Amino acid sequence: MENKNLEGNPKEPAKKSNNRSKRKIILIVSAIVILIGVIVEIPNIRFMFTHINTDDAFIEGSSAIVPVAPQVRGQVRKVFIHDNQYVKTGDPLFTIDTSDYTENANRAEAQYQANNNALKQIDLSISMQREMLLKAGYELKADTAMNKLNEENAQRYANLWKDNAVSRLSYDEMKTRYEVSSAKVNVDQANIDQIQTSIKNLKEELKTKTYATKALEAGYKLAMINLQRTTIYAPCDGYVTKKNVNPGAYVMPGIPYLALVNLDNIWIAANFKETDIHKIKIGAPVTIKVDAYPGKTFKGHVASFQSGSGSAFSLLPPENATGNFIKVVQRVPVKIVLDKASYTDTPLYPGLSVYPYVQIEH
After folding, report:
1. Higher-scoring residue by pLDDT: 322, 214
2. CA 61 – CA 132 distance, rounded (Å)
3. pLDDT at 236
4. CB within 10 Å: which end of the chain, N or C, has fewer?
5. pLDDT tier at 274 (50, 70, 90 boundaries)?
């Protein structure tokens, strides 16, 4: 019995040798797998060390969402669009009843045309008065020359009559002729003064009428503008959202009844920790992931920083000096612009959550 124990089981050394070989193989395989995993993950590891990211980011739509409000009041007659429809700039959206605005435009046009015709009549009268003034000037000039001749002849006849060289009748005739020509010169001058006064009065009336005509013209143009405003057109390309207008409804100016979302004007608002801001540079490339599109990445770049943390612009900004102070890491909004204007297959809507990864090493 003792001899048997001393000899032992001859299979045990072989079994231990097999176990050691299996462990070596497992260790080698494990090392190879780990090495392969490290090699495969090197780009991701390098990416992690060369980028910073935040989950506090979203698609900003303040510049993409365009509220559409009528500029005149009235009852809606037709609506040409439906929810989520894509429209282009200038497409009609809805129309308002034009009855009142057409009547206002016709009345304003009639008043403007009447005043404009009166203005033309005054202008024509001034032209006629100027022609009369020119003619009266010629008559005054001719009558003045004749009067001067009659004056000289009258003086000459007076001297001859004193010398009894002419009869009293001839002298009286020449004297009368001089007095008549003198009176005619005075009449001509009075006529010229009257015409000049008339022209002055017409010019004053023309000035007053011109101002009135301009005011009526402005009123007519405004009436036409209001008439044109009864049809509301799309101010930009975009998708119809928040539609709240239907035929028969009464709309008021300045109140938005729908909005257009222009997906070409979106950008990303990323709120990074203040401790990371110094690492981010303007123009740095950004890789963007969107929850709505798993596995899809977008490209962009850092455009600007907001000049203040988000809390500084909140409705109730913190007053650290008035109470117990607890330090909280602040967030600074960073504007990230997409490098591509739009993505047809994967549209980015305002409000979607995103994960921006900003490159900090070039």
Report:
1. 214
2. 72
3. 93
4. N
5. confident
Helix, coil or strand: residue 335? strand
Neighbours of 264 (CB within 10 A): 12
Q: pTM to 2 decimals?
A: 0.68
* Dihedral, 8, 11, 17, 22 alpha carbons, nearest 10: -140
The residue count for the chain: 362
Cβ-in-10-Å burial (0-12, 13-18, 19+) of 202 comes to: buried
CA distance 21 to 233: 82
- Give residue 6's pLDDT: 45
Written as six digits, the tokens of 177 are: 């002729």
235-241-242-247 Cα dihedral, nearest 10 degrees: 70
What would the two tokens of residue 36 be? 């392969």
Domains annotated for the chain, with CATH where assigned, are 70-95+232-257 (2.40.50.100), 99-228 (1.10.287.620)
Q: Hunting for tokens 């850092």 — which residue is that?
A: 302
Percentage of the chain modeled with pLDDT above 90:
48
